[in-house]
Design a protein that fits this description.
heterodimer, A: mainly beta, B: mainly beta, four-stranded antiparallel β-sheet, 10 strands
Chain lengths: 111, 111
């Protein structure tokens, strides 16, 4: 079983819609959760972090964490074509701090 | 500079040659990671350094790969006797405690 799993997509949404990206993880001891955005040909960029159950909002982005279900999601409101990228979920385990990445979900926002 | 710096940006080498890839992390970051990413694929973990602790080498794909981190700062990833399957983008990231920030990567092409 992979440490972190994501639907590879591609996920297509129209401009202005909400994009919902999902991630599950296998280790219940995981404590820290991150979302990265990677444009084609570029390095991953950290866009959101979440450590507690519930929602965390930053501008158009909302991260949601449910530790009981071992589930992390990223919502992008009012999606823009510039949001088109691959979104990577990353998880850090307690005591190790190693970062485990999912394979990413490719998002396309259609103008 | 303020970010993670990797050199060279691009490296073309002949099969069988050794290569060294360099990473200058963000000053003060105690953790340093190496990943590689093949075209269209996710991030493959290679090695993780945390302070003065023994590195986590569990991701190194073979004994041709090695890495060191001198003085808790600069890191060098060495690939001996390169093979064509080593062609990928090698990404370095550093972290203060939680989350990680990536360099621009080194694109390695083995011909």
């Amino acid at each position: 079983q992979k440490e972190v799993e994501q639907n590879s997509g591609p996920l297509s949404v129209p401009e202005g819609a909400i994009a919902s990206l999902n991630c599950t993880y296998s280790d219940r001891g995981s404590q820290s959760f991150f979302w990265y955005r990677q444009y084609s040909g570029k390095s991953p960029e950290l866009i959101m972090s979440i450590y507690s159950n519930g929602d965390k909002e930053d501008g158009r982005f909302t991260a949601q964490l449910n530790k009981a279900s071992q589930y992390v999601s990223l919502l992008i409101r009012d999606s823009q074509p510039s949001d088109s990228a691959t979104y990577l979920c990353a998880v850090s385990k307690t005591g190790a701090n190693n970062l485990f990445f999912g394979t990413g979900t490719r998002l396309t926002v259609i103008p | 500079g303020a970010g993670v710096s990797q050199s060279p940006s691009n490296k073309v080498t002949e099969k069988g040659k050794d290569v060294e890839l360099r990473c200058d992390p963000i000053s003060g970051h105690t953790a340093l990671y190496w990943y590689r990413q093949s075209l269209g694929q996710g991030l493959e973990f290679l090695i993780y350094f945390q302070g003065n602790s023994a590195p986590d080498k569990s991701g190194l794909p073979s004994d041709r790969f090695s890495a060191e981190r001198t003085g808790g700062s600069v890191s060098t990833l060495t690939i001996q006797r390169t093979q064509q399957e080593d062609s990928a983008v090698y990404l370095c990231a550093s972290s203060p405690t939680l989350g990680a920030f990536f360099g621009q990567g080194t694109r390695l092409t083995v011909v």
